[in-house]
């Protein structure tokens, strides 16, 4: 069973005690700390990097959603919201929370929510390990030799930490070696499969997730767009906006828009914004 490192965040001491007691009934759980304010939570998340944060929404100074905004630039753990107010439920799922539990916390309801987090954690570890093994197999097939074989042996005996995204674990090494990702591992509906990078039309950022647009289908993976950009071949892909990467082979034309921005029109008619900040880079990439 995969262990889960948990941080409890609530401005009420009794609420923190209740969650801690419930977690004591769960196997393979380590409570790494407690925070009684949003600002303290941000500092502890950055320092301790827990797998899961049991997070209150309503706190003075910095609320639960504010905590997530503050840690947006670093590793983001799974979040289980625990609060007395149900009007925040939709926002909780908008930020990809594992679940949302109302106070007073019912033991069975909490256990059900925590089981979701445990499964998500186990799936992330399994996906990361599978992605590393598949990437090693690919390198072996490319003739990388004994070093890759040694890597494969090591990976078979070690399970890594929480996955921040399958593309980064495989593609970062490729970029460092002058090669780039040819496939991206996607987890969806209980299965895992590869998407060839050449089949991707464009990529859209959504906080710590990205959507890979492939024809009329979109696949969502847990990865930051800046990390994914590093794994992609710059001869084929260009960052045109802080939240958009485009496959240059899919671009039909560019039209001037307002304030120095352009509209990039893809072959299927999709219209994407090319911001001034990225225009010079794109022009160099395409040889303009």
Automatic annotation (TrEMBL):
Which molecular function GO terms apply here? DNA binding; phosphorelay response regulator activity
Q: Among its keywords, does the record have Phosphoprotein?
A: yes
The UniProt entry, under SMART domains, shows: LytTR, REC
The HTH LytTR-type domain is annotated at 184-288
Write out the entry's keywords from A to Z: Phosphoprotein
What InterPro entries does the database record attribute to this sequence? CheY-like_superfamily, LytR-like, LytTR_DNA-bd_dom, Sig_transdc_resp-reg_receiver
A Pfam match is Response_reg
Residues in domain Response regulatory? 5-118
Question: 4-aspartylphosphate: which positions carry it?
Answer: 56
Asked if the keyword Manganese belongs to this entry, the reply reads no
Q: Which PANTHER family match?
A: STAGE 0 SPORULATION PROTEIN A HOMOLOG, TRANSCRIPTIONAL REGULATOR-RELATED
Q: What is this protein called?
A: Chemotaxis protein CheY
Which organism was this protein described from?
Answer: Gemmatimonas phototrophica
